[in-house]
Amino acid sequence: MIQIFTTGGTIDKVYFDANSQFEVGPSLLPELLPESNIHEGYQVQELLRKDSLEMTDADRQAVLQAATDCDCDRILITHGTDTMADTAAVLSALTDKTIVLTGAMQPARMRKTDALFNIGFAWSAVQLLPPGVYIAMNGEVFEAGAVKKNLKAQRFERS
């Protein structure tokens, strides 16, 4: 069984025309998993519904606590990309579980999104990687503490 935690981020953003901005909405993960032909072997729990730039140290500790308390030894976390590396660093205190964080550069609700690919890629990664904390984005896996987001290039790179 794989535990999936959702925390919000761009992957779950919704466009609100009334105020012409994106806001984090309910997770689309329950729809994205079947679209990726993933139908069983997981449980989903929403932890947060925040843009990662709004996440606090207390929020990261809550994610760590949820992962610590989880009976599953394989955990996938959807997360905003801006501070994903920060949360991965906090989670790296857990050495006996395989934890993979993923997200999207464009909301899942948009036609040209990387969300579906990243979810499928992270699903594979969490099953194949040894214990540790990783970020799986756009076809690459990075170890926690050795990754940063390149804002200009809109991709993750080894640091």
Short description:
This protein is of the alpha/beta class and about 160 residues long. The chain has helices spanning about 30-35, 55-70, 85-90, 115-130; strands at about 1-10, 15, 20-25, 40-50, 75-80, 100, 130-135, 140-145, 145-150, 155-159.
Can you walk through the features of this model?
- The chain is an alpha/beta fold.
- It has a single domain (2-158), classed as L-asparaginase, N-terminal domain (Rossmann fold), CATH 3.40.50.
- The chain is 26% helix and 33% strand.
- The chain has four helices and ten strands; from the N terminus they run βββαβαβαβαββββ.
- The protein has a six-stranded mixed beta sheet, sandwiched between helices.
- A hairpin with a 2-residue loop joins β7 and β8.
- α2 packs across α3.
- The chain is globular, with a radius of gyration of 14 Å.
- Keywords: Hydrolase.
- Its EC number is 3.5.1.1.
- This is Asparaginase domain-containing protein.
- Residues 2-150 form the L-asparaginase N-terminal domain.
- InterPro entries: Asp/glu_Ase-like_sf (IPR036152), Asparaginase/glutaminase-like (IPR006034), L-asparaginase_N (IPR027474), L-asparaginase_N_sf (IPR037152).
Distance between the termini: 32 Å
Rg estimate, integer Å: 14 Å
CATH architecture: 3-Layer(aba) Sandwich
Pattern of helices and strands: EEEHEHEHEHEEEE
Supply the CATH superfamily name. Answer: L-asparaginase, N-terminal domain
Q: What kind of sheet is the major sheet?
A: 6 strands, mixed
Helix share of residues?
25-40%
EC number: 3.5.1.1
Pfam families: Asparaginase (PF00710)
Keywords: Hydrolase
GO molecular function: asparaginase activity
